Amino acid sequence: MGSLNLISFGANIVAKSVGLFSSASIVRCTSVPVCKCFSTTSIQGPKRPMTAYLRFVKQQHPLVTRQNPDLKVVEVIRKIAQQWRVLTPEQKLPFEEATRAALVQYKTEKAKYQSQLTPAQSAALKEERRQKLAKRAAIRRKRELTLLGKPKRFRSPFNIFMSEHYDEASGTTMPKKMIFLMEEWKKLNLSQKKVYIQLSEDDRIRYKNEMKSWEEHMIEIGREDVIRGRKATSKKTASY
User: Fold this and answer.
1) CB 58 within 8 A of CB 25
2) Which of 7, 28, 225, 233 lies deepest, with the highest CB count within 10 Å?
3) Nearest 5°: phi and psi at 84?
4) What does the pLDDT profile of the chain (240 residues) look like in tens digits?
5) CATH (residue range 157-239)
């Protein structure tokens, strides 16, 4: 199940990278215009060119889709990936040369773009990149912990109440249902809430026991780095 999720995630990334749902299907090297208008909140620069493989995907996607109209996006990407793997170095060469030429142009335009930035814009761009990298790292970390089987965190009393009554809650959208359920939760007296408080406490114990077993297993397989507090402790130890 985990591998299928990763394949689906990869297919979505490839689709976004090459614009598979656009009408363009011809691979060619195009120039990237330098942004003339700058702001500290939205700074756009030259876009890094596609890799040789992504160029191949963009070229082949319309053909594979036309020949296999019933295939899902994940299956189309998998089929194209298989085609790429069996290509000879000579067959891959045009895509690699197009990427190298685009990289030369990209570096020239990037240098020109960066020279036009003010110090404030450069700082804003650096901070934006830092935030993007941190977000990507957090997503990768969460995905890895899921694949490693980390137990689900215990639920709060309100979360348990919400899951039990969500389907019957008034509202056509999730935010509206949430507002309704929050109001209903506030109306409960303490004795009514105690049922959910106890369920939450039971779930907390379940989480604590499962986490203990999971962390012991992580130590056994040499993945102490994913254990709570272990990474911070290791850093402190290394600093002395």
Assistant:
1) yes
2) 7
3) -65, -40
4) 444 444 454 555 555 555 554 433 333 333 333 344 444 445 678 999 999 999 999 999 999 999 999 989 889 999 999 999 999 999 999 999 999 999 999 999 999 998 999 999 989 989 998 999 999 999 999 999 999 999 999 999 999 999 999 999 998 899 999 999 999 999 999 999 999 999 999 999 999 999 999 999 999 999 999 887 654 344 444 444
5) 1.10.30.10
Contacts of 109 (CB under 8 A, 6+ apart): 31, 32, 34, 46
Cα–Cα distance list, 187 to 10, 24, 175, 192, 201 (Å): 46, 57, 19, 10, 21
Rounded to whole angstroms, the Cα distance separating 148 from 205 reads 21
Q: What does the angle CA 232 – CA 234 – CA 239 come to, to the nearest 5 degrees?
A: 100
At 68, which amino acid appears? N
* CATH classification code of 2-116: 1.10.30.10
Residues present in the chain in total = 240
Report how far residue 71's alpha carbon sits from residue 54's, in angstroms, rounded to the nearest whole number.
19
Amino acid (one-letter) located at 127: E
